[in-house]
Specification:
With about 400 residues, the protein is an all-alpha fold. It has two domains: about 1-50 and about 70-190, no CATH class; about 205-400, no CATH class. It is built from 16 helices and no strands. The chain has helices spanning about 1-25, 30-45, 50-65, 70-95, 95-120, 130-150, 155-170, 170-180, 195-230, 235-250, 250-270, 275-305, 315-330, 335-340, 345-370, 375-400. The radius of gyration is 21 Å and the shape is globular. The two termini are about 30 Å apart. The model has no long low-confidence stretch (mean pLDDT about 80).
Length: about 400
Amino acid sequence: MINSFVVQRILSTGFVFASSLLMAKILDPAVFGQVAFAMYLVKLFLTGQLGSESGFLFNSYVRQNNIPHFAFILFYSIQLLFIAVVVYFSSVFMGNVYAKSAVFFVLLIPFFTLNPILRVKKLYYATLLPDVLICFAVLAGVLFNKYCASFFSVTFNTIMWYSFGFLILSYPLLVFFIKKVGLVIGFRDIISRKTLKIYFDILCDGFPMYMGTLAYAILLAIDRFFLERYHNFSALGLYTLALQLSLGASLPISSQNFINVIDIGEKKREDAAMRGILLDNLKRAFIAGVIFYVILLVASFVLEKYFLIKYPGLCKVTAGLGLGVILFFISGSITPIAFYNREQKALTAFLFAIVLLTIIHNWIILLLRAPQIYAAYCTSFWLAVYSLFAIWYTYKKITL
């Protein structure tokens, strides 16, 4: 199961990254910057879940106080829809990219809300669907706009409108997975004091881990926010490509971490000795990290020299950013135990301190008018600092 999921995730994410590279090749760097930023915002809006996903896992493995799955999906959907509405109306001040991203996010809400249930059911391959659909819809929109509807200029707006249509065409997949998990759709006893209390407990239980996820999302958003607001979309496109490549190099580690959250939860429920298990996880993640960082360096050099010549400096930005990103995922191979032991607060507080330092260094770079490559290097440094602290804290403190 684990090996097959890693292969499936490599294939699905390989499609995502190949699609991103193809779009970068086809589009003008400024248009690609807008499209890539919109795709990122769609996933960033998911931080409005407020701990629903991690709380659902905690509820399943620790509390074992189950909520009807349809009730969970209904409450979770309302929560995400509220976030999308707020963002959409705020786009008057924030810009058109935010409005289009909010619409895209609404269309994906049914897939997002089904994900925690699929994860507990160990249908890991199905949890890959949202990322694949985001990229498929946008890539289809780009190709259709460029080659089938060339009478319209290839702009961000036209690409997004076509993408909405292609995303809606994927809804039969939703019906398939609803049947796969045996979801019973019914409103009887859904809105009750008991189900509302359980959902509130889910939010409370998941909130500590969610805060760590939120801090990480903000951390990766800061550089792009400054690039979008104070630099240009071409610089944003370059940074986004470097980050995509860095995340791609981290894929085998993050895939295993995804499963580790479930496995560590089950071992915790069985009262297994965790110290040896965590050490093995860490060793495997470190070895994989070294190997894939070397591959990342070679790949970014080849891409910049022969394929993505419109993005000078790609190799340098990727080399800097990739190191911190890979170290972050290496630390993630053991940190789920902190969540299950309710010891997440120190890690979350430290990560928010890193977020503050990242904001400060972006302002300094802006005031000094320094090249944006320094933002990638600084963010990578802070990610590395957090990762080393997380490994020390988790292994030396929690597992003693």
